[in-house]
Amino acid sequence: MEILAYPFMQRALLAALLTGIIAPAIGIYIVQRRLSLLGDGLGHVAIAGVGLALMTGQAPIPWAVAVCVAGAVVVEILRQQGKATGDVGLAILFYGGLAAGVLMSGIAGQGAAALSQYLFGSLTTVTAADLAVIGVLAVLVLVPTLGLAPQLFAVSTDEEFARTQGLRVRLYNILIVVLAAVTVTLAMRTVGLLLVSALMVVPVAAAQNLVRGFYAALITAMVVGVSVTVGGAMGSFYLDTPPGALIVVLAIVVFVLSWPYSALISKRRRVAPVLPELVDDETLLPHVAVPEAHPHKHGPDCEHPAIRHGDHTDYVHEGHRHAQHGDHYDEH
Amino acid sequence: MPLSSPADSKSTGSGASADPVLRVEDLSVFLGGLPVLRGISMSVRAGEAVALLGGNGSGKSTLVRAALGLLPVERGSISLFGSPLGTFRRWSRIGYVPQRSTAPASGATVAEVVSSGRLALRKPFIPRSAKDKRAVHDALELVGMGGRAKSDVRELSGGQQQRVLIARALAGEPELLVLDEPTAGVDLEHQHVLADVISARVNAGLAVVVVLHEVGPLTPLIDRGVLLREGRVIAQGPLAELQHTTGQLLAHRRTGHEHVDPEPEGWLEGTVDH
């Protein structure tokens, strides 16, 4: 493994490994909350932080973290107050971040070229100091995402129920977006700000296809994340390609491969379709009993497909829907 | 069995048992600037099963959601187990079963969903104890879903999902069970299963508040009904009495016929206090 002989590659692989662990670990909560594109927006906001650092000649990661966390908190508070339900506010914040970043790096005289290593990742230029910051941030993200998993799971799947368990739902929600913001900035050297969201979402989607249950998906997503980031980093060394792009392509390949598997599984999960019952129309419908004698008794075990229809179950029988009514069946 | 002994924990709270488990006084709630509840007063005593009845938009779901602090209150007061809602902290005493439409849709197992019902008793960063695991197991057994702990909730039928949500609420060993339309969208067969599960809890001493569009199979276990219309309480009392006051056979649908009859226009005319 000549690749490990280069110190810059050692650092690159370590950074990739940490990103691969962290991004899906926080990503699973983002996916549960159906905010899959939040990471992308936060990536745009982080660009403003990078621009600010370039303009003032500071190290980019701390600035990107600060600006991105601030942006995430603003977005979440707006959402909690019901003011960001329309996407316009979010769009202004996100594109404002992007524009401000490009503007500030331009003022710094560095132009888009200086930004591009943050937009698309630049693994091989990770310094020892960068790696130390990434390591500390990774631990900061990993401890709550795993330690508070039961609480974060409850908050991100059923917010109201979580509140009736006495959980501080607002705080947990802010924690989720803050951790997402930290993850976005942490990943900007590996996959880049424009592609980081993919690493938070795609391994989770693949894991949900492959395994059953939240915790199994969490662990599987982290395994997928590490495989694609380390694999992508090594592959890009040999293929001489940008690592971020290869990492994301690999993740999508895993997702595509997981698809037929989940289709196979879900075939066995037969869930009856549901027909909503239009209560007001029901009185208009005549009561039609099945005309012929119907010796067969429909039930959960019979071969006729069951359909939930309002408050009862219909059984599809030779093109009709039969519903039990006292001692006979009605046509529904 | 720990789940069947809510009465024990009640007796440990000195004097608390004298307070109603839920008291709502002069409650008004506005949603989107419109009054949805207007001057509601009601209470639920320990061990009592109360049904909130009324048509769509009468405010029954809003009432339970406001009572649990899920909606902002415009006017009036709410107290749980003798404490004002704002200072109430012992959330494990309450088991909430929301409408099933809010059920977790993403990939989680039945046991994972039910485990959330122990969170009021758990501390952050502490892994769940053997007692937590046993309570989840017991709650699933109580609703007859013990064999499905590892199933994905999305694989279950509506009635089974409803039982999982009830198990989640029971896992914290509550003293007050609050159910929001547990029988909606559930076929009659499963409604009877749910009724049996809830009856067993009532017999074990739980107080129950249940929002119902129609009483149906739950009729025998309801001690008292509170009838709402347009955000006001228009009648309360035993179901038989309510039936009498409204001149409407609220419970007649519990046998035989599976169709939902809409309330005839003006079925409460003459009893509504305008």
How would you characterize the overall build of this protein?
With 332 residues, chain A is of the alpha+beta class. Helix content of chain A is 66%, strand content 7%. Chain A is built from 13 helices and five strands. Chain A has helices at 7-32, 38-56, 60-80, 88-107, 111-119, 128-147, 149-157, 159-163, 169-186, 196-210, 214-239, 243-268, 279-282, and strands at 274-275, 306-309, 312-317, 320-325, 328-331. In chain A, strand 2 and strand 3 form a beta hairpin. In chain A, helix 1 runs parallel beside helix 6 (128-147), helix 1 (7-32) runs antiparallel to helix 11 (214-239) and helix 3 (60-80) packs antiparallel against helix 9 (169-186). Chain A is elongated and about 85 Å long. Chain B has 274 residues and is of the alpha/beta class. Chain B has a single domain (22-252), classed as Rossmann fold (3-Layer(aba) Sandwich), CATH 3.40.50. Chain B has helices at 6-12, 60-67, 110-115, 130-142, 158-170, 188-203, 239-246, and strands at residues 22-31, 34-44, 49-53, 75-80, 83-84, 94-97, 176-180, 207-212, 224-229, 232-237. Chain B has a six-stranded mixed beta sheet, with helices on both faces. Chain B has a four-stranded antiparallel beta sheet with strand order 2-1-4-5, with helices on one face. The longest helix of chain B has 16 residues, at 188-203. Chain B is globular, with a radius of gyration of 18 Å. Mean pLDDT of chain B is 82; it is low at 1-16 and 248-274. Chains A and B meet through helix 7, helix 8, helix 11, helix 13 and strand 4 of A and helix 3 and helix 6 of B.
